[in-house]
């Protein structure tokens, strides 16, 4: 039983591929399981609609607008299970041959509540996401509220930039959500574990990180509490992990560890 003021949340892990119907079916099954467990917010990975290990031309040809058929069907799932859904999609851009790597937020009635377009593109470890993806506007961040708890959204490589997390916390976020397609590789899984905990600790906030499992990602989706303790998670297999976000826990940790009040430097957007 979730107490007053608390929110049950879930991170969903699967391996999206190039078959949109299969991806949607996987999302539907995971969403149904999360809803049965009481989740009010379900966070899916980056590129949930279409994904490959290498960012090939399909990322453009498969792209859709945010009111396209895939988003419409995910909205129907959100309404059917009466939960908030955040998932990653490749969004068409009418004035650019590239796409946007976009997180779409849907309400429990299926209404589109907001979107975040990834700011930091993954031009690292031999990848060049910017060849096919246009970066989002650093001023257009996404915070949202579920049952009185405020969340702030980041995407995958954004996790390596503490300034963005701090901007979201300064905007009121008590929890950070990080849909990702974190590619496996030397030290990559260690970086993921380290950075998810670091962003939680330094911001005294919960962190919900949802990734792909093999073959399109490194798995290890996790929910971390404001003291940096992993409270729920997954290893290599598809599935969901649920936990409770408690705003009183955030307030208590921020009182005991008042690092946000002790700052001598501000973070500026742009």
UniProtKB/TrEMBL annotation:
Pfam family, one: CN_hydrolase
Keywords: Hydrolase
A GO term, aspect molecular function: hydrolase activity
Database matches in SUPFAM superfamilies: Carbon-nitrogen hydrolase (SSF56317)
Domain CN hydrolase: 7-247
PROSITE patterns according to UniProt: CN_HYDROLASE (PS50263), UPF0012 (PS01227)
Origin superkingdom: Bacteria
Family statement drawn from the similarity comment of this UniProt entry: Belongs to the carbon-nitrogen hydrolase superfamily. NIT1/NIT2 family.
Full protein name: Hydrolase
């Amino acid at each position: 039983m979730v107490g007053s003021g608390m929110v049950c949340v879930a991170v969903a892990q699967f391996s999206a591929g190039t078959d949109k119907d299969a991806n949607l079916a996987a999302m539907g099954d995971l969403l149904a399981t999360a809803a049965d467990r009481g989740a009010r917010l379900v966070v899916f990975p980056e590129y949930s609609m279409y994904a490959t290990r290498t960012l090939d031309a399909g990322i453009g040809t498969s792209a859709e607008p945010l009111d396209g058929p895939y988003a419409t069907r995910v909205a129907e799932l959100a309404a059917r299970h009466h939960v908030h859904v955040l998932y990653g999609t490749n969004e068409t851009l009418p004035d650019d041959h590239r796409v946007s790597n976009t997180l779409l937020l849907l309400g429990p009635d299926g209404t589109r509540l907001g979107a975040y377009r990834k700011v930091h593109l993954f031009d690292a470890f031999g990848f060049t996401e910017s060849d096919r993806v246009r970066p989002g506007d650093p001023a257009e961040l996404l915070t949202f509220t579920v049952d009185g708890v405020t969340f702030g959204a980041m995407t995958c490589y954004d996790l390596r930039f503490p300034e963005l997390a701090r901007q979201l916390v300064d905007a009121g976020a008590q929890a950070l959500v990080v849909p990702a397609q974190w590619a496996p590789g030397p030290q990559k899984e260690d970086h993921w574990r380290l950075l998810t905990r670091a962003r939680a600790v330094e911001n005294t906030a919960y962190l919900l990180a949802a990734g792909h499992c093999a073959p399109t990602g490194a798995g290890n989706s996790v929910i971390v509490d404001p003291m940096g303790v992993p409270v729920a998670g997954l290893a290599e297999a598809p599935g969901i992990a649920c936990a409770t976000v408690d705003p009183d826990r955030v307030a208590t940790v921020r009182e005991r560890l008042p690092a946000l009040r002790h700052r001598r430097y501000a973070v500026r957007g742009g």
